[in-house]
Write a structure and sequence with these properties.
This protein is α/β, with parallel strands linked by helices. It is built from 5 helices and 10 strands. It has a single domain, classed as Alpha/Beta hydrolase fold, catalytic domain (Rossmann fold, 3-Layer(aba) Sandwich). Strands 1-2-4-3-5-6-9-10 form an 8-stranded mixed sheet, with helices on both faces. Strands 7-8 form a two-stranded antiparallel sheet.
């Protein structure tokens, strides 16, 4: 099967939904969106990348994790540990030829998983994520612990601050050309995760899909 279809996977805490793109055999790309509001701003963009990957004969999945998307787990109840456990459970279902495609803080979810390779777009540490959340909270005039309608306890914030993406091994880091930090490649484009509303960049998505396909083939 090569079309877009709905599927699900099980983890210790229940069952979560996911979208499948492209073939079910061969290398599979597991996409992880950023946490919190950035997920809404980048979902369409991520789907465009995955559709383009199908054109290269590469299958992919875009899952909900506990507390995200259509998950039955309340956002306030889902911990970073839960999301990581669900991620590992999904990789075990997908098999050994699974590659991570992680956007921003999505890279914080894959650290315990055994993967054939990791491809990160503008990876963000937990400390950077919490700083962004704090700036947005203050700018919106929200009370302590209220982050865009999500209540985050001191313990959850502490766990996020300590989280860092996993590097080493077969890990490719991509950044936009406006980001001066080290990267394996850069591409021109605006950071969609900074937009106030969800947006897309089809040309950039196609370039990134080509980058991923060539990286997997290499």
């Amino acid at each position: 099967m090569t079309g877009i279809r709905f599927d699900h996977y099980d983890w210790a805490g229940g069952r979560e939904a996911m979208l499948r793109f492209g073939p079910d055999i061969g290398p599979i790309v597991l996409a992880a969106l950023p946490l919190f509001e950035e997920a809404n701003r980048t979902r369409q963009f991520a789907c465009t990348i995955l559709r383009a990957l199908a054109g290269y004969g590469i299958g992919s999945v875009l899952p909900d994790f506990p507390g995200t998307g259509e998950s039955l787990v309340a956002t306030a109840d889902a911990t970073l540990s839960d999301k990581r456990r669900a991620y590992v459970a999904l990789t075990q279902v997908l098999g050994v030829d699974t590659y991570a495609l992680s956007i921003r803080s999505g890279a914080l979810l894959e650290v315990d998983a055994t993967l054939a390779g990791r491809w990160h777009l503008s990876p963000q540490s937990g400390e950077e994520l919490v700083r962004d959340l704090e700036r947005a909270r203050v700018a919106a005039g929200k009370k302590e612990g209220d982050y865009a309608g999500n209540h985050l306890s001191f313990e959850r914030l502490a766990a996020l601050r300590e989280a860092v993406p996993r590097g080493g091994g077969r890990c490719r880091i991509i950044r936009l050309d406006t980001d001066p930090r080290a990267a394996d490649a850069t591409y021109p484009g605006v950071p969609l995760w900074r937009r106030s509303e969800p947006d897309n960049n089809i040309q950039l998505a196609q370039k990134l899909a080509a980058d991923i396909a060539h990286w997997i083939a290499a």
